[in-house]
Amino acid sequence: MPLPLLVGAVLAMLGVATFMGLMFSSGGGNKSNQFRVIGELFRKQHGAGKAVATKLALAAILLGSCTAFVGVGRMDAERAAACQQHCVGLGHEKGAIGASRERKAGAATDVKGRPPGPACLCTGGGRPDTELPADALPRR
User: Fold this and answer.
1) For residue range 95-106, what is the model confidence (pLDDT) as tens digits?
2) Residue 87 CB coordination number (10 Å)
3) What is the pTM of this model?
4) What whole-number distance in Å separates Cα of residue 133 and Cα of residue 83?
């Protein structure tokens, strides 16, 4: 798991926990009061410390979410590179991550009869197209 994904997930979860704690401790436990309480927190009606903590919690949620998505992007890029390398090693010209095209009897399938999840699709090079579940690619 890439470090940005881990750091981002932890930061976002801490931000959410802090924000929820501030909101509930300021009278926002009832759904109908939550937006009012958030406004009060921003207007410092529950103290300047809680206002600063609320803004920091929201910033942590935003920063953590963005950082986590960077980690997901890195994982996807690594998977695409591994797919390309695997396909070229089999003699194909191109390898790409996409939806599975194969239908396998007796295997778990989606609504269209394909295996669930993404697949590594190998094409070109004068060989018949092949595919491999993307989760089965060798990890670096």
Assistant:
1) 999 887 765 555
2) 25
3) 0.72
4) 10
Token readout for 26 is: 């300021």
User: In whole angstroms, what is the distance from residue 64 CA to residue 25 CA?
Assistant: 23
Return the higher-pLDDT residue of 20 and 119: 20
**Are the CB atoms for 50 and 41 separated by under 8 Å?**
yes
Q: Say which residues have a Cβ less than 8 Å from residue 63's Cβ, sequence separation at least 6.
A: 8, 11, 15
**CB-side neighbour CA atoms (13 Å) of 69:** 5
Tokens of 133: 């579940």
DSSP letter string over 19-31?
Answer: HHHHHHHTT--SG
Residue 75: partners with Cβ closer than 8 Å, 6 or more residues away: 1, 2, 5
**In Å, how far are 8, 16, 26, 66 from 12, measured between CA atoms?**
6, 6, 21, 9
The sign one gets for the Cα dihedral 89, 134, 13, 67 is: positive
